[in-house]
Specification:
Radius of gyration: 17 Å
Shape: extended
Number of strands: 0
Helix content: over 70%
Order of helices and strands: HHHH
């Protein structure tokens, strides 16, 4: 198992407030690193904050990863096979 997978596995066992701390720390580390421009980094931060705010206000539902990935894979397969709805 790759080190990053081990770290991710361990991080997912942390309490929610610790996972949020790590998420914030990682997000901050990406600002201006890995983005084409500082402006793009700032826009991404603003978008993340907008989405989290919408979730916190109950305006956006949450879906578990497995369900979402299954749905996305099914839709991708339908598009590739020409049977998309």
């Amino acid at each position: 198992m790759a080190l990053r997978d081990q770290i991710a596995e361990q991080a997912l066992t942390l309490p929610p407030e610790d996972r949020a701390f790590l998420a914030d720390l990682l997000e901050e580390s990406l600002t201006n690193e890995g983005f084409a421009t500082p402006e793009l980094a700032a826009e991404w931060v603003a978008e993340v904050k907008r989405r989290v705010g919408a979730y916190d206000r109950g305006e956006t539902p949450a879906y578990d990863l497995q369900t979402t990935m299954q749905s996305m894979r099914r839709e991708l397969e339908e598009r590739r096979s020409g049977t998309a709805r």
